[in-house]
Amino acid sequence: MIKTQVSITSDEAMAAAAVGALRQIRVIQKERQLDHGSRSWRGQRDRWANQIHGAFGEIAFSKAINQAWTPGGGRISNGDVAGEYEVRATEMDNDGTCIFIYEGDLDDKWYVLAVGHFPDFHFPGAIKAKDGKQKRWWNPRANPPCYWVPKDQLTKITDIWGEPPPQSGTDAERAGHPNGFVGHDSEGRFVHYCWCGKDAGLGYDVKLTKGQFGTWFCKDHKPELV
To answer: Could you tell me if 32 and 95 lie in one domain?
Structure first.
């Protein structure tokens, strides 16, 4: 089942803190003075905290939809989760809660709102950047200026991602997914299996540095091109 509320573990929080710190170090080393393409006057304390809190939200959402967390490393990633979806985290949880969409955000990507703080997060919804860039939501006084999209304008994550493949079970229960499955099982382990439901050891078109997890096969269904 897609989860709309998730708790992250202390180990996951430590991993997120390390990634958040790495990101901020990278920003400082490159002497970047811009946030999302615009100048921000946030101080260093806020920047360090926001990086870590944002990574908390990313891990939480990866667990919510049972897909891999893809934070990048020395390079900026193409998506925080599954190499595709971007996550924006906030502690604010009231009727005025918004997701921030920036001019430089990629129009066809999904941006997910994660709300909470360690260890608990929930997900009011998501929106594609092109749908969030509406004049009525533009806030020129934001730091930096961006679109403030109210949470009640977001699409529920259960409506976007639907029901994922089962996380565990017998081969028969896991079978029937054309491209197999790559993600976390019910115990949080990273797994990949074939479309037939068996554990898969042969991966095709896998590029982990780009957040691309490819298609996986068991030995009995190894295609000619693998």
So the answer is: yes
pTM given for the model: 0.69
Paired sense of beta strands 110-117 and 86-90, if any: parallel
> What confidence tens digit (pLDDT) does each residue in 88-124 have?
999 999 999 999 999 999 999 999 999 999 999 999 9
Two structure tokens written together for 165: 């493949």
Instruction: Identify the domain containing residue 124 by its residue range.
Output: 5-161
CA–CA distance, 69 with 55 (Å, rounded to integer): 10
- pLDDT tens readout for residues 194-209: 767 777 777 776 765 5
Give the C-alpha separation, 58 to 43, whole Å.
23
Query: CA 143, CA 141: separation in Å to the nearest integer?
Result: 7
**CB crowding 170-206: b at 16 or more within 10 Å, else e:** eeeebbeeeebbbbbeeeeeebbbbbbbbebebbeee
Last residue of a domain, one of 119, 135, 161: 161
Is the residue at 59 inside a domain? yes
CA proximity to 175, closest of 164, 161, 165: 165
